[in-house]
Design goal:
This protein is mainly β and 117 residues long. Helices cover 0% and strands 50% of the residues. The protein has no helices and eleven strands. The strands form two sheets. Strands 2, 4, 5, 6, 9, 10 and 11 form a seven-stranded mixed β-sheet that branches. A four-stranded antiparallel β-sheet has the order 1-3-8-7, with no helix packed on it. The mean pLDDT is 96.
Length: 117
């Protein structure tokens, strides 16, 4: 069973930055893809970003240019650097990991990000 644990959420002012991390019980090298979704109460869950083992990254248009996803094999984490945060980025951010394109996604429980003055 894969365990994913997110950290790094919190309260930040508009224009500020946060760095989220997703730690796994195994090695991040075991996963073909890892990424992030987010959900604010009353809104649909929204895909944010993904990184594939080859290093290819993809981003939702609403975060492109502001967020950067990366894998840190030394720390065994997948990270999301979020800059120029906006109030509409407020949500619970959950990480996921997939061993292959056909595999199911494993999920963390999420970390709250609140952008407010």
């Amino acid at each position: 069973q894969v365990h994913l644990v997110e950290s790094g959420g919190g309260l930040v002012q508009p224009g500020g930055s946060l760095r989220l991390s997703c730690a796994t019980s195994g090695s991040i090298s075991d996963f073909w893809a890892m990424g992030w979704f987010r959900q604010d109460p009353g809104k649909q869950r929204e895909w944010v970003a993904q990184i594939i083992i080859s290093g290819i990254t993809n981003y939702a248009e609403v975060v492109k240019g502001r967020f950067t996803i990366s894998r840190d094999t030394a720390k065994n984490t997948m990270d999301l650097q979020m800059n120029s945060l906006k109030p509409e980025d407020t949500a619970v951010y959950s990480c996921y990991a997939q061993r292959s394109p056909q595999a199911i996604r494993n999920w963390g429980r999420g970390t709250q990000v609140t952008v407010s003055s």
